[in-house]
Write a structure and sequence with these properties.
By secondary structure, the protein is of the alpha/beta class. A 4-stranded parallel beta sheet has the order 2-1-3-4, sandwiched between helices. About 30% of the residues are buried.
């Protein structure tokens, strides 16, 4: 993008909440780059989660928690999708396969698939190029 080789040719008139993945964010310090990509997409309204950047909540997949059984409503991913819905987001966007799995499962078990989409940032980019 900074070199001008990637161009967005379509608008995406959606409200998105960006989730900072643990390894990309806290472990590697990458916070601004994903936001810059999303903010450069025409029509996209980008919001941060309630707790973002260094304070971002884990989706529940980090540290092996993906293999732990927790009650519905107590999983971190359940909390994060409810926050995104309260913020009136159309899409919860992230850049981690574990986050995607956990968020999609939470949206399915909460019967909110008609309210909130879960997408990887690369899926958003693919839609607009």
């Amino acid at each position: 993008m900074k070199e001008g080789r990637l161009h967005f040719t379509k608008e995406l008139n959606k409200r998105v909440v960006y989730h900072d993945p643990c390894y990309l964010g806290r472990h590697n310090g990458i916070y601004d780059e994903p936001r810059e990509i999303l903010q450069s997409i025409p029509g996209l309204e980008v919001m941060d989660e309630v707790d973002s950047r260094e304070n971002s909540l884990c989706c529940g997949g980090g540290g092996g928690r993906i293999w732990m059984e927790t009650k519905k409503g107590e999983r971190f991913s359940d909390i994060l999708i409810e926050q995104a819905i309260e913020m009136k987001a159309d899409i919860l966007v992230t850049a981690c396969p574990y986050c995607i799995l956990n968020f999609r499962d939470s949206v399915l078990t909460a019967n909110k698939t008609d309210i909130l989409e879960i997408k990887d940032i690369s899926e958003i980019v693919q839609e607009v190029i």
